[in-house]
Amino acid sequence: GLFVTDYFTRTPRKLSPFRSFASIELFHFHIPEDTVIAVWNLITFKEQGGTFGDQCPDRSITVYFRSGAPSVINPLHTHFPRDTAVPGSFALTLTWTLPNRTTGVFNVTSPLPGDWFLAAHLPKDEGKISVKVKGLGLYEECQYLFQPQLIVQRLVNIAVLYPGYVTEQSMAPHNRSSLYKVFVPSYTSRVLVEVLRCRGAEGCPLWLRVRAKAPPLHNSTALDCREHTPCQLALDLPFWQHWYYVLVEKHPGVPGPVSFQVTVQLTDCSRPSLARPPFLPSSASMNMPHSFGSAGGLALGDSPPPTSPNGTKHPVPIPTASPASERCWPVRPTLRNELDTFSVHFYIFFGPNVSVPPDRPAVFVINLLPVLDSGGVLNLELRLNVSSLCGENVTVFGCLNHEVPLTSGDNASVTCETESLAGFLLSVNATASLSRLRIPYPQTGSWYLSLRSLCATEHGFEPCTNVTAEVYLRAYLSPCINDCGIYGQCKLLRTNNYLYAACECKAGWNGWGCTDNAEAFSYGFQLLSTLLLCLSNVMFVPPVAIAVRSHYLLEAAVYIFTMFFSTFYHACDQPGIVVFCIMEYDVLQFCDFLGSLMSVWVTVIAMARLQPVVKQASVLYLLGAMLLSMALQMDRHGLWNLLGPSLFALGIMAIAWTARTIRRRHCYPPTWKRWAFYLCPGALIAAAAVLLYAFVETEENYFYIHSIWHLLIAGSVGFLLPPRAKPSGHLGPLPRRKGCGYQLCVNEQEELGLVDPAVASINSICTS
């Protein structure tokens, strides 16, 4: 056949250590139909400071592949919530072959068409400290970037088999196989593929292989035509609304050409005694996709297409068995009600209570939209009305299957599995009247729920007589499992144009629904951490008292503001259940950060002892408040938000002190006691606080390191706040020169920074 190669690529993304599914990087691809091979080229490289990270350590990268929906991964081996079905996926670990780059290749032969998802992450950090000093640019963090590329090779112009018609084929000696496809509509219970009039050098040296959705593989359903006469391959309960691919393959080493005929017969389960009519209906009546078009341009009643050497002609009648088990029952649709993103309820007409008769199953269909619905959780709930059983030992079984209902008449359907199908089983009875099922990241398409009522006997389950069970049925789509509980937060994530939801757990809880308490914080630990973070703010009471005593009322107001909002912010910021919020979290966080930075700002400006003209105007106080508000709005967690204002204020203080030192011709402040007992201890305490905040504080030790930070910062303020100048009461009124103008008064005691006015003489000089 003719092959076409398509190429897809994605932008490189930075990988993160795994903590939850919210920390992975998800990539979305779409594989077209008739693809025979898909090759993923997985490129990973290191970066550090904008260059290749040759010095970065090698960290393994795990990549997950899944068709139809994102992978449900569990690298930490945590427990899933109850009643949760975990779909499988394929995982691949990449190792480094070069110092700064590695490449992996993942091939999939005859992949399923549609959406494919790749998830990648780094291993979990074990005891490593992620310091805030990285944000200063003093240390360049190692970054691991991952870029997947996809190359697909697909066949074009695959021959289409029309149900009820025979297609002739002559396979040349140099040809190995012939590929066909047939579309299977809804309400098809059986697909029968047969090879007729096979002639070759060694009888019929052919293999017949059939597979749904994609070309057959070596392990697909197969039949050796040399050993079976007639060469018929039957598939019961095929997938509805999908292409089935038929591969006729020649045995190796067979010389000469091989001629044969191939035909397909579809059994309509709504009419089990009839096969699909030989005259092909239109594509609309067969629910064929638009890409199929009208089959050969035929409508109902048209004449068949002309015969050609490798074409289609009237079939030879094929007898088909139609056992009672091939009957199918009407499928009741559900009404889709979209409330929000991944919040969809599926309502049943004349429900939610449904009756399950004893002689036939009740079948419902739930349609999940492609791409839109695969990023949430499909929830199913069955509740049995025990009063409807009339005292009988009745069990209602529910089978949830993808793309085809499982409604066979025997009791084997209790397992919800066949040779080619695997579904999910639910059961309710008088003892256990409630059953739930959760499927995270479900595959899109049609999900069929078949309900059957069976009575328990000594010989197993048998059909009930004259008992119609009543079941409450609830089906809905939610973003996360139980909204991640009280110890998690359900986050809506996006990768390009694809949305998905995942839980982010806290307080030591883990798992897909934040239900694994193996490493959870106890209630006492949560209470202790909350009390430490809140009560450590009481250390601001002494600085407030000192500021009020020294008549620094503006500074005292800022300290009270900081103490109040820091206390209630940390009471609201706790990850567990010991939480108390008086305002919205964002408001408390902003006020806490602003108060902390303003406390540092006003303290250093007060230490600068600027001239009264500047200080009375409060220019720097107002300017600092505006600039700090802007900085916090840009990045609240950046270390520069603390160091930037602090360094700027210290620069102002250094300039003011240097100017006084030059003008007075002696060091400022002039007394060694001020340096030894106030300035040096206060500076050391503040420096220790900054070092703890920048280099030591992590998420694991946050509650006690940050409490120490509160104590140190408040303590440093008490040491660094300058004293108030106290003028002597025996001084008489100063002489004043009359006339127009203004007076500029300089208090030498304030310049010297003295506490006791008796230490030095007081001279107030006023000039006009």
TrEMBL record:
The chain crosses the membrane at residues 520-540, 552-571, 577-601, 613-632, 638-659, 675-696, 702-721. It is found in: Cell membrane. Residues 503-514 form the EGF-like domain. Pfam families: DUF3522 (PF12036). One of its GO terms (cellular component) is plasma membrane. The keyword Transmembrane applies. It is a multi-pass membrane protein. Its main location: membrane. The keyword Magnesium does not apply. PANTHER family: FIVE-SPAN TRANSMEMBRANE PROTEIN M83, TRANSMEMBRANE PROTEIN 8B. Belongs to the TMEM8 family. This is TMM8B protein. It comes from Phaetusa simplex (large-billed tern).
